[in-house]
Write a structure and sequence with these properties.
Blueprint (H helix, E strand, L loop, with lengths): L4 H27 L4 H16 L11 H15 L2 E6 L4 E4 L10 H4 L9 E5 L5 E10 L2 E8 L4 H51 L13 H51 L5 H33 L7 E3 L1 H18 L3 E5 L6 E3 L1 H17 L6 E9 L2 E8 L6 H4 L24 H11 L3 E7 L3 E9 L13
Parallel strand pairs: 7-9
Antiparallel strand pairs: 1-2, 1-5, 3-4, 4-5, 6-8, 9-10, 10-12, 11-12
Helix pairs in contact: 1-5, 5-6, 6-7, 7-11, 8-9, 9-11
Length: about 475
């Protein structure tokens, strides 16, 4: 039963009220322990005993008569009674054998006949409250009561027990009402979140929570909405991924199957027809191989299994080497490939993977730049490290597509109709993953009709890198 949040809140509120009442009771007992009000109550009791005492024996009564009187009066009232003369001699004591003895002289009033209401200590150091009543000119009857060790307890029981019980019952009722309201305000958003989470688990990803209630609840609701949005996006991306992979594999498989069937059926009898069929089968199989390798690369990068072989990299030399390897292809397409690569600081990274990145970027730029255009590879130092740009003068990328070009299998076909050949749409996705694994960033800028620029930022080598290149 205590597993319920509402029950725990109710129990906690009741516990708090009970603890507060006990604390108040103990505090009152502590502060009332030597309260003047309690002492006044004790003195009032002694006054009542002195006022209602039976008539005293005559002053000339014998000691035995007085001893019997004070003994009977003490037994009837519960106070100690003593008879003292003005000389300070003890004439009678209701407790003659008591070990708590007094100096009678210290208990007499300052003036004969005066009334004294004070406290005194006995021979054992205990405190007694006393008043005196005159019997005759030379005699005083003293009424004494030992001060209670815990007078506040009796005071609380007699005067405050009832109000405390009433206040406790009222506080408990109010706390139950408040606890129910608070439990409802806290538990209801949690129940809504639970229902929304169950909806997501059942495949309904259109789940949102209202941002209302306390700040903490709003924060959790906002985080849940973000999570639901990401789950929906991830599921949609997974469905698109499966559909795209199926489509990308289906096309070459259909070609391979068709031309292989033509060879088996004897439709391709001439050497040229056989060569053409074999070439198509080979090209489509190679396309499938590249697609599978790209998918494997992405899968390894996603789960962190594709470890980078880190080492000192001369980035300037690497960029020049990549540009040189692609210069022949640029010449075949009648595209000018320019290099603006000054000396750059060494970085720590995987040289092969970085070469793959910049080869892919330059190759894409050459592929989508018409004859007579220009592709520029530039690099420069920045405060955080190195910035490399690959700029082309191609048709550009529309704004609605620019934010999606790094998605897997995404292709901007409508803006790149002049492209010769078609990839699987994995190159930029792999490029982004490799750059991210190096602690860098990549972004794209494009203006339709003017061209596109890719900007890669890589961090410089740090002194604590174990593979930092050292000058010799």
């Amino acid at each position: 039963m205590l597993n319920s949040l509402r029950t725990r809140l109710l129990a906690s509120h009741i516990s708090i009220v009970v603890v507060c009442l006990l604390t108040i009771t103990v505090a009152l007992a502590f502060f009332l322990r030597n309260s003047p009000a309690v002492r006044r109550l004790a003195f009032n009791r002694l006054n009542d005993v002195a006022r209602d005492a039976p008539p005293f024996p005559p002053p000339d009564a014998t000691t035995d008569v007085w001893q019997g009187y004070v003994r009977d009066l003490a037994a009837a009232t519960g106070v100690r009674v003593m008879l003292v003369d003005n000389a300070g001699r003890m004439l009678a004591d209701s407790d003659p054998d008591a070990t708590h003895r007094f100096d009678p002289q210290s208990l007499l009033p300052d003036a004969p006949g005066a009334v004294r209401r004070e406290s005194a200590r006995d021979s054992s150091g205990r405190i007694w409250l006393f008043i005196n009543r005159r019997v005759a000119r030379g005699q005083q009857v003293l009424f004494l009561q030992q001060q209670p060790r815990l007078p506040a307890i009796a005071f609380l029981i007699e005067y405050m027990f009832g109000p405390l019980i009433q206040a406790g019952i009222t506080a408990l009722c109010l706390s139950l009402i408040l606890a129910l309201l608070i439990a409802r305000s806290v538990a209801e958003p949690l129940r809504k979140m639970a229902r929304a989470a169950q909806g997501i688990a059942s495949g309904n990803y259109d789940q949102t929570l209202s941002l209302s209630g306390p700040a903490e609840v709003q924060t959790v609701a906002g985080a849940f909405n973000d999570m639901a949005k990401q789950v929906k996006t991830s599921q949609q991306a997974q469905r698109d991924f499966v559909a795209n992979v199926s489509h990308e594999l289906k096309t070459p498989l259909t070609s391979i199957q068709g031309f292989a069937q033509a060879i088996l059926d004897g439709a391709a009898e001439s050497p040229d027809a056989l060569r053409r069929s074999a070439t198509i089968i080979f090209d489509e199989a190679d396309r499938m191989r590249r697609l599978v390798e790209g998918l494997l690369d992405l899968a390894r990068l996603d789960v962190g299994q594709s470890a980078l072989v880190r080492g000192p990299v001369d980035l300037a030399a690497l960029l020049r080497s990549v540009a040189e390897k692609l210069s022949l292809r640029a010449g075949e397409k009648d595209v000018t490939l320019r290099q603006e690569v000054p000396p750059l600081p060494w970085i720590v990274g995987d040289a092969d993977r970085l070469a793959q990145v910049f080869t892919n970027l330059i190759d894409n730029a050459l592929k989508h730049t018409p004859a007579g255009g220009t592709v520029t590879l530039a690099a420069n130092r920045v405060a955080s490290g190195v910035e490399i740009t690959v700029t082309d003068t191609g048709p550009g990328i529309p704004g609605e597509d620019l934010s999606r070009i790094f998605e897997r299998f995404y292709q901007v076909d409508k803006s790149r109709k002049a492209a010769t050949g078609r990839g699987a749409g994995l190159g930029l996705a792999i490029t982004r993953e490799i750059i991210g694994a190096h602690g860098g960033k990549i972004r794209a800028e494009s203006v339709v009709g003017l061209g596109t620029k890719f900007v890669v930022s890589l961090p410089a080598a740090q002194p604590d890198d174990s593979t930092v290149a050292r000058k010799r």
